[in-house]
Write a structure and sequence with these properties.
CATH superfamily of the largest domain: Efflux pump adaptor protein, beta barrel domain
Number of helices: 6
CATH class of the largest domain: Mainly Beta
Structural class: alpha+beta
Number of domains: 4
Radius of gyration: 45 Å
Helix content: 25-40%
Strand content: 35-45%
CATH topology of the largest domain: Elongation Factor Tu (Ef-tu), domain 3
């Protein structure tokens, strides 16, 4: 009995040892990484040209005084909108007022001389007819009257001129617009050569930019069909990236091409209600120049920049990933035009590019936007409601 027990224990130990020395089973393979994909879209897209520009007032009036005098006060707020004819500065009028008094006194004396000459002629005329005085004395009296009359005309003109000078002691704006900072201070002696300030009419607003010589030849009337009409409708992109809500138009190009830069100046005119934009701002002028037929577009998130180049991960047959170098074009909203490297209908990775290795198996999942669009297409139009409303 004891011998059988020992033999049974030996068999059990041998079986346990054999089980412990066997190889472990290999772990199951890792599931393929999940990536979000979107299809390559093919459609016609407009091609835009962009030029760097600077805003400028439609009219920029330099405010200069018409007379010489000391500046008494500034009567406008710098940087504010002023109306046409609104006073901007006042010049000391006392010297002009004294000149006006002197001119009016001279006019009074001239009127008195004219009255005396008229009385002389009226008295001498009947005497000459009666031959009580000579004809020469009458002729002298008539000439004196004419001289006195001409002197009165000149003296009246002098009074009018001094009154005009007096009105010019109030310097007004010749146009309505934005008044800049004053360049003369109270107490300065100003002359007709002094620039007191500048007023700019900014509604409409001009935008100055340059076209290359090749662009001018391409967009001119008679160049590419329809290009001249398209470029005449302008958009304005501001320095913060926003698009100005009012479209502009091309009003003219320059007279000559600059031989140093090979460009020709162009001017666009934009409505500017509320005077939002001011002269001197940075602006980017954009215009549709042509249409790219059958362009390929992918979401911008699918494009990855690497050392100056661009790459896209494509999920091909069998859900195998492939990283391709592509040539990109312009951006259209949230999409990017791909000029070379993709084909219509291919699927590109928009999320999970780092997990999509060339030749590796991936698990593609449609993006939420693509899934919603597909569900909308599959559902079709909603059925009409029954008459009972059930």
């Amino acid at each position: 009995m004891k011998r059988e027990l020992v033999l049974g224990l030996s068999v059990l130990c041998a079986a346990a040892g054999a089980a412990g020395c066997g190889k472990k089973a290999p772990p199951p393979p890792a599931p393929p990484p999940v990536v979000v994909v979107a299809p390559v879209i093919q459609q016609d897209v407009p091609v835009y040209g962009e030029w760097i520009g600077t805003t400028a007032g439609d009219i920029n009036a330099q405010i200069r005084p018409q007379i010489t005098g000391y500046l008494l006060r500034r009567v406008y707020d710098e940087g504010s909108f002023v109306r046409q004819g609104q006073p901007l500065f006042e010049i000391d009028p006392r010297q002009i007022q004294a000149q006006l008094q002197q001119a009016e006194a001279n006019l009074g004396q001239g009127l008195a001389n004219l009255a005396k000459a008229e009385r002389d002629v009226a008295r001498y005329r009947p005497l000459a007819e009666q031959r009580a005085i000579s004809q020469q004395e009458l002729d002298n009296a008539v000439s004196a009257e004419q001289v006195a009359r001409a002197a009165v005309v000149a003296l009246k003109a002098a009074v009018d001129q001094v009154k005009l000078n007096l009105s010019w002691t109030r310097v007004t704006s010749p146009i309505g617009g934005i008044a800049g900072a004053a360049t003369a201070q109270v107490g300065d002696l100003v002359t007709p050569q002094s620039v007191l300030a500048t007023v700019s009419r900014v509604d409409p607003l001009r935008v100055l930019f340059n076209l290359s010589e090749q662009e001018y030849l391409r967009y001119r009337e008679g160049g590419v069909p329809g290009a001249a009409q398209r470029i005449s409708q302008l958009e304005l992109v501001l320095s913060d990236g926003t698009v100005f809500p009012h479209a502009g138009r091309l009003i003219f190009t320059g007279r000559e091409v600059d031989v140093k830069t090979g460009t020709i100046g162009a001017v666009g005119l934009f409505p500017n209600p509320g005077n939002l934009l001011r002269p001197g701002q940075y602006a980017k002028v954009r215009a549709e120049t042509s249409v790219d037929r059958g362009a390929l577009l992918v979401p911008q998130r699918a494009v990855n920049e690497l050392q100056g180049g661009y790459q896209v991960a494509v999920v091909g047959p069998g859900d195998k990933a492939e990283v391709r170098n592509v040539q990109v074009g312009q951006r259209i909203g949230s999409l990017w035009v791909i000029d070379r490297g993709l084909h219509p209908g291919e699927r590109v990775v928009v999320d999970g590019f780092s997990r999509a290795k060339s030749g590796a198996q991936v698990k593609p999942v449609e993006s939420a936007a693509q899934a919603a669009a597909a569900a909308s297409r599959d559902a079709g139009p909603a059925p009409p409601a029954s008459p009972s409303g059930k």
